[in-house]
Task: structure prediction
Amino acid sequence: MGGMKPSILLQPLGDVDKNLLYDTCRRLQRIIDVNVDVSDIYIEIPEEAFDNLRGQYLSTTILHHLKIWSVKLPYDKIVGISNVDAYTNGLNFVFGEAELGGRVAVVYLARLRPEFYGGEPNYELFVTRCLKEILHELGHTFGLLHCRNRRCVMTFSNSIYDTDYKEANYCRNCSAYLLRNGVRVLNPL
Ligand SMILES: [Zn+2]
Ligand SMILES: [Zn+2]
Result:
């Protein structure tokens, strides 16, 4: 802290569209006052995270793998981005998962694409959803819990409708919390 902007790395897990990562990176820096880099290498998703019966990956294993892998990287927060579909124990699927008050988070793209729901491809909508989920998981890494304001990006998304309803921004309460933890929200809701 002390005037230092937090540094964030967007880390592809498996091969992820570079344009998406760069577009998300630029937009992120218009919402919060942070330095964001996109990693130019990608790391493999651990195969032991795959559940054959469900056809999905266990997010907890992926998050742990990223945590170990990134331990020496010079960033405050590491956000893994993956194309796969993932779940955690107790949830049929997750859009993402984060270490609360920790250093790592992961966002899963599979259910953010309009095609997943039978819609036409829509890059703008896809990038916006991706941005929202990254802001949400980053919020958790800075210690934020879920917010009751359904327009706030920290509201829990039960479905893609919740994700589309919320803004790619933090409410005043969440922004005030973030500021106390070293992150300035440029233009809170
Ligand atoms: Zn959450
Ligand atoms: Zn909020």
